[in-house]
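Q: I'm writing a short methods note and want an example of a predicted protein-small molecule complex. Could you take the sequence and the SMILES for zinc ion and return the bound structure as tokens? Please keep the output block clean; save any remarks for afterwards.
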Amino acid sequence: MPRHIVCLTFDFDTQSGFIARGMTTPTPLSRGEFGAMASGRILTFLKERSIKATWFVPGFTIESWPRECAAVVENGHEIGHHSWAHIPPANQTRVEEEADLVRANENIRALTGRTARGYRSPSWDLSAHTIDLLIKHGFLYDTSLMGADYIPYRARRGDVAELGKPFQFGEETSLIEMPISWSLDDYPHFEFVRTPQSVLASMQPPRAVMQSWHDEFSYMKKTVAWGVLTITMHPFVIGRGQRMLALEDFVAKLAADGAVFMTMEQAAEEARKRLFP
Ligand SMILES: [Zn+2]
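A: Understood, no commentary inside the block.
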């Protein structure tokens, strides 16, 4: 019996990403603040459709927006780990990375009663130590790598990439990788960001983007009997009215096409049974 899973995921960054990039003047901060406001309308929409989603919430957001985070938990959604301060692990030492991991996990334990099962790195850039640290701290899955599209796989540690030499594959671990893609993330499609170094001027029409996401689902259905499509969104991005309307129609279309919606933890558990029969 074919089974095509869709995980709707929300990276609840609020102001953390802007602060991590040094954008601490009032307007960028307010842009992150909009995410806290928009989280309520996303929760309402998910409730209307009886969909359980996964929210990757930095410790910063849990401490700064306690009522909004409590509402996510009260609605039955999974809380995943998304660092404390939204600094990519690739920019941290192992000691800094582990301290950040532990600090945010304590926030998640206080919020939900248990530590996180899933991890998503800020800005999707793991360090050489991340997989080790996730295993050490009892994680079931990571969702930061792009080595597949619909089929979860075992994360490796100890890969070696050296210029001029063949790639050396490290050992497969017990950590389940739930692959992602920038093309399935709302941020690069929709945001306008100007920094001294760069300009990201996307502002794509929401329905065109959602059509491309739906095409991914159609291709998954066409090519595999079982698979997981993970969509990454940010409340401060997707929460704008024009995008919410497009999201509502996209989800309705997925449901009509037989998509099975679940949390990433549930999908990772299914994947684990397949990878470790
Ligand atoms: Zn984030």
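A: Remarks, as requested: The mean pLDDT is 97. The longest strand covers residues 3-11.
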